Description:
Layout: H1 8-12, H2 20-27, E1 30-33, H3 35-38, H4 43-52, E2 58-62, H5 65-70, H6 77-86, E3 94-100, H7 110-119, E4 126-129, H8 140-151, E5 155-160, H9 162-166, H10 172-180, E6 187-189, E7 196-200, H11 208-224, E8 230-234, H12 241-256, E9 267-268, E10 279-282
Helix pairs in contact: 11-12
Amino acid sequence: MWSQTHWQHTVYGNNDPSQRLARYADIFNTVEGNTTFYATPSLQQAQIWRNAVNDTFRFTFKLPKHITHELKLHNAGTAVQQFFSVMAPLLDVTGMWKIQLPASFGPQHLPVLAQFLTQVPQGLTYGVEVRHPAFFAKGDAERDLNRLLISHQCNRIIMDTRPVFAAPPTSEAVIDAHQKKPKVPVHAIATAQHPVVRFIGHPQAEANVHFFQNWLKQLPLWIAQGKQPYLFIHTPDNQEAPQLAVDLYRLLQQQLKYTPTPLNDINLLAQHSDATAQMGFDL
């Protein structure tokens, strides 16, 4: 998301609301386009978004929930074609297309995912986010999922919700996050070249440093392997997300011992034959 009214003073300054995306792209080098999950924009709107960013900025758009949650990837060819037709102006600045699947999408549905990955436009980069508990149990279901993603060079999206679940449910935003975010183990696995980390932060900024320590080790490791990770920072209400993103990125810069340029090695907001051998840390 980039159109956040409560970022007016911290991110946008005195810029006109229509300039928010352009200002955002001056600071960060990627954004999670959550809006497409709920509604496909018009072709005109897609072109406006394209015109607002430079050539090195990268969007990561979610596929519509009509495809992932309503059709559950079944008979979705027409819907996929229509979506990518509208999003055509953004193809050159979209780093990843996210396939977020509901918790009801379990191991028995993997053949559907396999078929779907052959039907989406080829030559693009995809990431899959699963929420079914079986995909986090280190059993056959998780191994089958990882092998499937590796075979299609599709990135597994990693949700790190430890920080937000460590926060007491004393605010409306935290309570809402506890209800909507999956409380699943963190399996830091790269199934393709652009591992994606979605770090759902604690509302108290300093509390996040502890939970970020293993990422300070894992992200540089992936970079050393020639991968280019995506890191997205969220907070329960997202009001402090930009500052938290900058703070955690500075820790990464110190760890890497150099100051990266936008999209040099790691994208920031605010992916082998043996799947188990790609496991990083488990928490």
